[in-house]
Design a protein that fits this description.
single chain, 368 residues, alpha/beta, TIM Barrel, Translation Initiation Factor Eif1, seven-stranded parallel β-barrel, three-stranded antiparallel sheet, 14 helices, 12 strands, 18% strand
Length: 368
C-alpha cells in the first residue's frame, strides 16, 4: 500500500487545521522578533554630566539631591560620572601630601620620602586601593601608619593623577534619584590587564551599566583592548561610542564588539551657544531619529540665568518630548538587536510547509 494511504481521510482532515496553525505560527515568528527588536532599538536615554548639574543647582540654591530630582522629572534618565583622583581630594582638603625624610643607614644622609596624610578617614581605603590598582607591586607591601600612607617611589604628579573610582556621594545621589550611571574613565600610561580588570570592576560595583571613554584613547588601547572588551562582556557592561569624537581605539571597538556598543551624541557648550534654543533641541532629536543614537548627553545651552537649573530642565524636557514625538521611547538603551530571523528559520519554515503539503495531498488522495 502506498505511504499516502496509511493516513486515513478522517485523520488527515483532523490534523490539517493543526498543520495550518503550525505554519501560521512559524510565519509570524520573524514578525514578532522584528517587533521585539525594534522596540528595544527605540529605547533612548537622555543623560547629563553630574558636575554640571551640581553647579547649576548650586547657583539656584539647590542641593545635588534636589537638582537631580527636578531634572529626573523633566526627562533625565542617566548621569555621567567621572573618576575622582588623588589630586582632587587634595584640592578639597581630604588629603595632604607631605614631604619628609628619615635617617639614612649607618649615619648616612637622610633619605627623603613623600607621604599622604588623610584628613578625612573615610577616604583612606579608597586611596590605598587606588594606589595598589595603579602601581601594583610598588604599593603591595605599603601599610598605613595611623592616617598616613607612604607613597610609592614615583613622581608626585603621577600620584596626584591616580584615579580612585567614582565619587561615592555622587553615586549615592544618582541611585537615590533613580538615575542610571554612565561611568567615564581614561587610559593612563602603563594600564595593563590588572588595572583594566580592577578599574572596570570598581565602576560596575558602583552601579555603572555603561562605560564611556575619557580623553584621547579607549581604556586598553592598543595592546590591551581585547582585555577591555572581555571584561565589559564579563561584567555585563556596554560601551558608549561618542559620535564625531576622535578617540583612539573607538573604531576598533565598533568593529570587534558591535554587540557591546551604544552610540552617543553630545555637543560642546560652545557648539550649543551658536544654535537657537529650537535648533539645539532639533539637533538632538535628529540624532536619535535619523542616526539611531541612543544616548543623548546634554550640556547646558546657557551658563547664566536667574534659574539656571530650571533653564537646563526646560532644555531636557523639550528634547525628551521631541524624542517621544518621533515614536522613540525614553528608557534604558540596549545594544543593537538584529531583527533578522536566525539562520535555521528557513529550514523550520520549509519543514512546516512540507508537512502541510504532505497532509493536504494525503487527504485529497484518500478522498479520491
Amino acid at each position: 500500500m502506498p505511504i499516502l494511504s496509511a493516513v486515513t481521510s478522517s485523520r488527515a482532515l483532523r490534523l490539517l487545521p493543526l498543520a495550518f496553525a503550525l505554519l501560521f505560527l512559524v510565519s509570524l515568528w520573524p514578525l514578532s522578533r522584528r517587533h521585539q527588536a525594534e522596540t528595544r532599538n527605540r529605547a533612548t536615554d537622555v543623560a547629563a554630566e553630574i558636575e554640571a548639574i551640581e553647579a547649576l543647582g548650586a547657583g539656584q540654591g539647590l542641593t545635588l539631591d534636589q537638582s537631580l530630582a527636578k531634572l529626573k522629572a523633566s526627562g533625565l534618565g542617566a548621569v555621567v560620572l567621572n573618576e575622582e583622583t588623588i589630586g582632587e581630594l587634595v584640592s578639597v582638603g581630604q588629603l595632604e601630601i607631605k614631604a619628609s625624610s628619615v635617617a639614612g643607614e649607618r649615619g648616612g644622609p637622610r633619605v627623603p620620602f613623600v607621604s599622604l596624610t588623610v584628613t578625612d578617614p573615610a577616604v583612606l581605603g579608597r586611596v590605598q586601593a587606588g594606589l595598589v590598582r595603579r602601581f601594583g607591586e610598588l604599593m603591595r607591601n605599603v601599610q598605613p601608619r595611623g592616617q598616613s600612607l607612604a607613597l610609592p617611589p614615583v613622581a608626585v604628579t603621577l600620584v596626584r593623577q591616580t584615579p580612585l573610582g567614582l565619587d561615592p556621594d555622587q553615586v549615592a545621589a544618582a541611585k537615590k534619584a533613580g538615575l542610571r550611571i554612565i561611568a567615564r574613565a581614561g587610559n593612563p600610561s602603563g594600564a595593563g590587564t590588572r588595572y583594566i580588570h580592577t578599574t572596570l570592576g570598581s565602576l560596575r560595583a558602583d552601579g555603572a551599566e555603561v562605560f564611556l571613554p575619557q580623553g584621547d584613547q579607549v581604556l586598553g588601547r592598543r595592546d590591551a583592548l581585547e582585555t577591555t572588551l572581555d571584561t565589559l562582556r564579563r561584567l555585563g557592561m556596554l560601551y558608549a561610542s561618542p559620535e564625531f569624537a576622535k578617540i583612539g581605539g573607538d573604531a576598533n571597538v565598533l568593529a570587534a564588539a558591535p554587540e557591546l556598543v551604544i552610540r552617543l551624541h553630545t555637543a560642546q557648550t560652545a557648539e550649543l551657544d551658536r544654535l537657537s534654543p529650537e535648533g539645539a533641541v532639533d539637533r538632538f532629536v535628529k540624532a536619535a531619529r535619523e542616526r539611531n543614537l541612543r544616548i543623548l548627553m546634554l550640556r547646558p545651552q546657557t551658563q547664566s540665568a536667574d534659574m539656571p537649573l530650571d533653564a537646563f530642565g526646560t532644555f531636557i524636557e523639550k528634547v525628551s518630548q521631541g524624542v517621544e514625538a518621533e515614536g522613540l521611547e525614553l528608557a534604558k538603551p540596549h545594544e543593537f538587536s538584529d531583527p533578522s530571523p536566525p539562520k535555521y528559520y528557513g529550514v523550520l519554515l520549509g519543514a512546516a510547509a512540507g508537512l502541510l503539503g504532505w497532509m493536504t495531498l494525503a487527504a485529497m488522495t484518500e478522498r479520491k
